[in-house]
Fold Kinase-like protein.
Amino acid sequence: MPSGDQRDSNPGQCMAKPTEPDANATSMDLYGELHDSLVECPFTQNMFLPLNILQDVISVENIVRTPPFSGDNDLAEEVVHTAKKVLASLILVGRQNAIVDLLSEGLTDEKLPLYRRGSGADRNLLTDCDGNQTFETFRNWERVDIDNFVERQQWRTQAPVFDTSGSHFILDRNSALPLQAAVEKIGTTEFSNVFKCGLYRSHYQQDSQLLAKQVHVAIKELDDRNIFEREKENLTKTLNLNNRHLVKHIATCERGSNYYVIFPLADGGSLLDYWKRENEKPRKLELILWSLRQMHGLAGAVYSLHHDLGAGIHCRHGDLKPANILLFEEDSDPFLVIADLGVSRIHEQQTNLRRGGTTTTATTRSYEAPEASEPGQQNQPRARTYDIWSLGCVFLEFAIWLLYDYDAIENFEENRKLPPENPNASFFQINIDRKATILPEVLDAIKALREDPRCQGGTSLESLVNLIADKLLVTSAEDRCKAEQLRDELQEIVQKAKHDLSYLLNPTDQPAPVHKVFLKASKTW
């Protein structure tokens, strides 16, 4: 959990360098500049030196006039190219003169961090991070300096550098994450907390246009190793799927019993946030077309999860809902992304061949498919068409938002809760014969959309509602359409709309009265 310190830090600012000082003054200034630039990680509470500051301070120009360089430009060049972190650590300990002997022993930044070889007589004998080489220079150091170097100062330079490979980092208890101090909690789930935080640019080697434009990231913090391992495994398997509508993580980290997943920040929040925030946005044709394009993209992402992970590997997301669909607001092309793969089920046998039942339970009841609740089916293996039902629920709400507003979505949810047997606002009900049927309120909503004059006349929205009603919200998992068919039919709708904008919506000056299923239940109609 981050500390309560909310102070912002400026990762790129360094103190002015003195002009032509004497050697001792320059050494003290280097120490002061490094020390004063240390930043506290808000998650580990350990101090670290941002890489860009290290590079600015440990330069040939700055160090060549200080002991032990004394104008030796070649030695200064060697340190800057191979041992910046080593020298910075030594300066913070007050032992910078040892750099000459340590360089002669072959110590470079790549061999950090160093560890004690043992205790007793070997306490001052340090080995490299692989345990392959020892460094005799440390043997004659005072214990206080050894402790300071091994347990504190060398770790100031060891904050990891991330890239787009989704690497996993196992952090020492003395390590820090390269994050700025200002932290904002932006979400909570049953198993995690999610924070918005600044990532130092110098600690991210990006080749992604999305991440090149930002320094903020989302940090998911978990304390359950099993849940973390499942999410890490799922994210690693899906990282190479070439689909912009699937979330891609930056890195995973573990430090003791704390676990972290680092994601690019969805600056637009979730789809649910978007509906609320843009509730008053005019429903222009461009907005309807964008919405249809996003639904097509999400369907394609689900197809990728279901089919593109490799031969013999099968996956279903298992918890598709507006809160798990994120909006990345690119300058001219915002797009939706499916997130929260932690509850996804990825396995290496087809569902109908697996003997074991479903073990994924961390799902949202409102968007669950009927097979999750039908007597005798709860613990049975679930087909991938489970996700198709959930998409049907989301797309129906999307259509309601486009034609009405977010209040209609909320009222629709509350009206689904009115039957006492449906407190979770599911889209289906279990009848007395123990079979699932579509909830009457859902049928009313579909009927209201179909009868709205703006939908009628062969519009894109009419095609969308028909697709939802006839092929997505189907209680039998076997009879629901597959992800490929859904993707292809939505593509047809989008392509037709691109070529003929009049297909999107039937303009009318007299929209139909709002159906009671979209109004508050207590209202008198």
In short: DSSP finds 16 helices and 17 strands in the chain. The CA atoms of residues 114 and 150 lie 7 Å apart. The two ends are 49 Å apart (CA to CA).
